[in-house]
Amino acid sequence: MHSLRLQMDVPLVLIVASLLVIGLLAVYSSSWEFSLREYEDTSGVFLRQVGFVLLGSGVAVVLSMFDYHLYRKLAVPMMLATIGLLVLVIILNRNNDAEYSRTLFGASVQPSELAKLVAIIYLTVWLASKQAQLNSLSIGLVPMMVILGITAAIIMIQPDFSAAITVVLLGITLFFLAGSDLRQIILLVLIIALMGVLVYFISDTAQERINNFEIGLKTPTEAAYHVKRAFEAVIKGGLFGVGIGRGTTKYMGGLPVPWTDSIFAIVAEETGLIGASVLVLLFLAFIWRGTLIANRAPDLSGKLLAGGVTFWIGFEAILNIAGLLNLAPVAGNALPLISAGGSNMVATLAGIGILFNVARSDHRKQTDTEGRNYRAVVDLRGRNGGRRVSRRGRSAGRISQ
Question: Which stretches are transmembrane (predicted)?
């Protein structure tokens, strides 16, 4: 048991557990009225989310014990399978409503959520294998652009802009962490920026979201419906909130599906600025702990995996909250570990399981180092002690003579 505690990153466990508890409370509070109408049971959505949390936690435990170096053999098959699922989404859902255009198997699986984690694993393996050659344009930047371009383009066709943006930014982050030449990183950013401008001009959805963001900045009263309802919830909450379960913005005519993308607004309404600040601080603590684990990782693969997972979850949290407060265009992404949803919850907890594995590898490295140092000290003492006894013996012999 003591050995297990030494290998477990306790601060990270407490942070993740706190976020999950807050998330489950928020999901129940924001979904009970909908569950009563749809399932004739106030806990319908909540119990489903509990199941996803348990499933994701089980996956996290397994991956925390799975040596991350073994991903070298699995990265390519995982990436090919994920791209296959993304293509399948496009083929099967061509004529479906937008609400289900990103999902498979009756809207229960969203491959774009899995793609974020698989992209981290694949890029980690690829960058670690090419580390000595990354500064070569033909081996570093060009293949990187192809990998990111194919994955992001398929996701964007669905369309899932937030997932596509996340995958691209993950690529840039990992490319930087791998030690790539700064000129290549700047060139990569410029190319992606140009692609972003192109997407803006050819995509009505992108134009609408950015235009709504600009209008909301200039005239908050004319912001998009989603943002206005979120602002109302935050204002109603005040400093201490109206009380858990007592918010009104979640009811019909208020925030759409408040237990998913808009759940932060419900937390702010019911627990006030204090509760919302606690939630933000927990995410900042997660980013701090993940960054620490990445810095302490025993090798480049561990550093990239931990850094990628930390950036992914931290970025999605910031993007979700900023979108609701009109500090960024609404992206439509979930709030990690808080929003209801199976694919996002399981994928996020799987990533956290990998983060735990990197942390355990660092603990094992420290334990091995301490063990070697201890054995060396004991051995040195033994040798020195032997010499002292030997010298005394020789001196005694000379005196007796």
Answer: 12-30, 50-68, 75-93, 136-155, 161-178, 185-203, 272-292, 304-328, 334-356
Q: Which residue has the tokens 């799975």?
A: 66
d(CA 313, CA 72): 23
Which residue blocks in 40-140 are alpha helix, DSSP H?
44-64, 71-92, 111-129
- Torsion sign over Cα 320, 13, 121, 291: positive
Note whether residue 376 is domain-resident.
no
The DSSP line for 328-374 is: S-------TTTS--HHHHHHHHHHHHHHHHHHHHHHHHHHHHHHHHH
Buried b (16+ CB within 10 A) or exposed e, 294-324: bebbeebbbbbbbbbbbbbbbbbbbbbbebb
Rounded to an integer, what distance in angstroms lies between the CA atom of residue 385 and that of residue 380? 8
Say what the alpha-carbon torsion angle 266, 270, 274, 276 is, to the nearest 10 degrees: -10
Helix intervals (H) in 219-262: 225-237
Distances 224 to 40, 259, 275, 307, 317 between C-alpha atoms, Å: 32, 19, 25, 34, 20
In a domain, 375, yes or no: no
Which pLDDT tens digit goes with each residue over 36-54?
888 888 888 999 999 999 9
- Distance, in Å, from the CA atom of 111 to the CA atom of 397, rounded to the nearest integer, reads 82
Q: In the numeric block, which tokens belong to residue 74?
A: 């699995």
Per-residue tokens: 268: 């702010």
| Per-residue tokens: 152 | 């992001």
Helix (H, G, I), strand (E, B) or coil at 231: helix
Judge whether 319 lies within some domain: yes
Residue 154 C-beta-side C-alpha neighbours within 13 Å: 22
Residue 374 placed within a domain: no
How far, in Å, CA of 356 to CA of 367, rounded? 16
Split into its structural domains, the chain has a count of: 1
Residues 308 and 124 sit within 8 Å (Cβ to Cβ): yes
Q: Which of 6, 2, 1, 17 has the alpha carbon at shortest distance from 361?
A: 6
With a CB cutoff of 8 Å and minimum separation 6, the contacts of 355 are 12, 290, 293, 305, 306, 309, 310
* pLDDT band, residue 395 (cuts 50/70/90): very low
Rounded distance, CA 265 to CA 259, Å? 10
Instruction: Give the domain extent around 242.
Output: 2-363
Q: pLDDT confidence of 4, banded at 50, 70, 90? A: very low
Assess whether pLDDT exceeds 60 at residue 389. Answer: no
